[in-house]
Specification:
Elements (H helix, E strand, L loop, with lengths): L1 H47 L2 H32 L8 H4 L5 H46 L32
C-alpha cells in the first residue's frame, strides 16, 4: 500500500510542472485575447479621433502588457526549474515530458495563443497605419495654415538652403542670426 501512495505522489509531483505550465498558457491566452479586444477598440477610437479614449486604452494596454510580462517571468522560472539546471527549455522541449492528454492540451493552448498573437499583430499594424495617416493629415493642415515664406536669401544654385538653416523649420525668427 505504501508503494502505491509513493508512486501516486511521484506521479503527481511529475505532473505538477505540466499542469502549472498549462495554467500559465491559459492565462497568457486570456490576457492576449484581452489585448486583442483593446486593439480592436483602439481601431474604433482612432477612426473617431477620440484622443481621451485613446489615452485610456493605452493605459489599459500597458496594464495588460505588464501582466503578460509577469506571466512570462513565471513561465521562465517554471521551465528553468523543470529543466533541472540544463539549458532553458522551450514549450517544444517540455512537451515530451508531459503525458498524452497534457501534451494535446498544451499544444492546443499554444496554437490558440499563436493565432491570437498573429491577429493582434495584424490589428496593431492597421492601427499604426491609421496613426501615420493621422499624422500626415495634421502635417498637411499645419503646412496649409502656416505656409513656408519664400526664400529671400541668395544661395548659389548648387547649394542647399538647409545649409543656412532654412529647412522645413516653422520658426519666423532665427535666433542664431
Amino acid at each position: 500500500m505504501n508503494t502505491r501512495v509513493e508512486n501516486r505522489r511521484t506521479d503527481d509531483e511529475q505532473r505538477a510542472p505540466a499542469l502549472q505550465l498549462m495554467a500559465l498558457l491559459d492565462r497568457h491566452l486570456t490576457l492576449h485575447r484581452h489585448l486583442l479586444q483593446l486593439a480592436y477598440q483602439k481601431t474604433d477610437v482612432l477612426k473617431r479621433g477620440d484622443m481621451d479614449g485613446l489615452m485610456q486604452l493605452i493605459q489599459k494596454e500597458q496594464t495588460a502588457i505588464a501582466a503578460i510580462q509577469q506571466l512570462e517571468r513565471e513561465r521562465a522560472q517554471l521551465v528553468a526549474a523543470w529543466s533541472d539546471g540544463g539549458h532553458p527549455l522551450t514549450l517544444a522541449d517540455c512537451l515530451p515530458k508531459m503525458d498524452e492528454e497534457e501534451r494535446q492540451k498544451a499544444e492546443q493552448l499554444a496554437s490558440e495563443l499563436l493565432d491570437v498573437i498573429n491577429e493582434l499583430q495584424a490589428v496593431n499594424e492597421l492601427n499604426g497605419q491609421l496613426i501615420r495617416q493621422s499624422l500626415q493629415w495634421v502635417t498637411l493642415m499645419l503646412d496649409q495654415l502656416m505656409p513656408q515664406p519664400p526664400n529671400v536669401n541668395y544661395t548659389a544654385p548648387n547649394q542647399s538652403t538647409r545649409q543656412y538653416g532654412h529647412g522645413r523649420s516653422r520658426s519666423l525668427f532665427d535666433s542664431k542670426a
